[in-house]
Write a structure and sequence with these properties.
Length: 381
């Protein structure tokens, strides 16, 4: 059934796919503008204005938006071209920017058109969830993929660029640096990371003073530390807290997650295998969400892109198909109106169950990288 779907020419047509993603993005903008629910955009917009006004980027500003900012000072420059526009136009271009970045990044993955088409259609609902929340997650997903692609092209200088750009926006994007051990030119990469990190660190100096920049980074660090301690939501930590052990430490869970994540480095003989590298990309995308203390429903476009990449390069066994369907139903469909309000809020959300299928798949990814014959190609031809 899955094979029949991606075999249809219309569903592999790049222009048709791009049109569908753009239409979904525009619909999300119109919907949120009519409902007057663009709070997340206001958070992003005011990172720029608070930056240039020398205000605390991480305080609460109830007259401007609900909640608080958790993006680095550099994000103020990224959002600036959208922030200076009228809100309705800024929201529209912001969502379209995220759309273009994600669609383009997936289009460059080293898989067949059939497999690429499957990835697009599989993540479409999660993409819509993120777009309705006006989030940056499609862009973040693209940054991870761009990093991988630059390593694949043996361009460590530009891989370092995307890592530093992402890392100074959202700290966990430095996880993209995990790719470097799989590729040559490690010394050049490390020097490039130092160079680009210095550039990204200093870029806000275009609009603020050195003293203010240091203060902003101190506040950025404090806000992230507080988030790790107090936030867990849809993560491995959340699953454990809500269902088994309420007092579990996020730092402890993340530490275990790091050890399992890096265990695949033991299999050095597989580093040059295409399947291994794509599974590693899937692992990075999934890990960055399920071990993030701030993981929310719109964040799962990142993880579900990893799930789709895992599936297209894996054997189509009943177990793998079952895990994929489980993830699609519980992770992607559970926040939609297909699930009754009570089931979604009182069962799935209350117990962080949206994360469960993706967590299981991540462990399956790790198992495949460690113990299966990675030379076999199970991708659809």
């Amino acid at each position: 059934m899955l094979r029949d779907f991606v075999n249809k020419p219309i569903f592999q047509d790049k222009r048709f796919i791009f049109l569908v993603f753009v239409l979904f993005s525009v619909f999300a903008v119109v919907q949120q503008l009519l409902l007057k629910q663009i709070n997340n955009y206001y958070i992003f917009k005011y990172v720029y204005y608070h930056l240039i006004q020398y205000k605390d980027l991480y305080s609460h500003y109830p007259s401007e938006y609900v909640d608080s900012n958790h993006y680095g000072p550099l994000f103020g420059l990224v959002i600036a071209p959208f922030a200076i526009l009228p809100d309705w136009l800024g929201v529209l271009f912001w969502n379209l920017f995220n759309t273009v970045m994600l669609v383009y990044a997936i289009s460059k993955l080293p898989v067949s058109d059939k497999n690429r088409a499957f990835i697009y259609w599989f993540v479409l609902i999660e993409f819509m969830t993120s777009e309705q929340n006006l989030q940056s997650n499609p862009f973040i997903t693209a940054l991870f993929i761009f990093t991988f692609l630059m390593f694949e092209k043996e361009k460590p200088f530009w891989a370092a660029f995307f890592i530093a750009l992402g890392g100074f926006i959202k700290l966990y994007l430095f996880l993209g640096g995990a790719f470097f051990l799989l590729y040559p030119k490690k010394g050049k990469f490390l020097l490039s990371v130092l160079f680009w990190s210095a550039v990204m660190f200093a870029l806000p100096l275009l609009v603020i003073s050195p003293h203010q920049l240091i203060l902003d980074y101190q506040q950025f660090y404090s806000s992230l530390a507080l988030k790790v301690i107090t936030n867990h939501q849809l993560s491995v930590t959340g699953l454990i807290k809500f269902n088994f052990y309420p007092d579990i430490s996020s730092f402890y869970v993340m530490g275990i997650g790091v050890l399992i994540f890096i265990s695949v480095y033991l299999r050095r003989e597989a580093f040059k295998q295409k399947t291994f590298k794509l599974l590693f990309l899937a692992s990075v995308l999934i890990w960055s969400v399920i071990f993030s203390p701030g993981a929310e429903s719109p964040t799962y476009i990142i993880a579900m892109t990893g799930v789709a990449i895992w599936f297209v390069v894996s054997e189509k066994t009943p177990l793998n198909i079952g895990l994929l369907v489980f993830a699609f139903i519980l992770t992607s469909l559970s926040p939609t109106d297909l699930f009754p309000h009570y089931i979604h809020y009182e069962i799935i959300q209350a117990h962080a169950l949206k994360a469960l299928p993706v967590v299981l798949i991540w462990f399956k990814v790790i198992y495949q990288m460690l113990f299966t014959d990675i030379r076999k190609d199970y991708a659809w031809k």
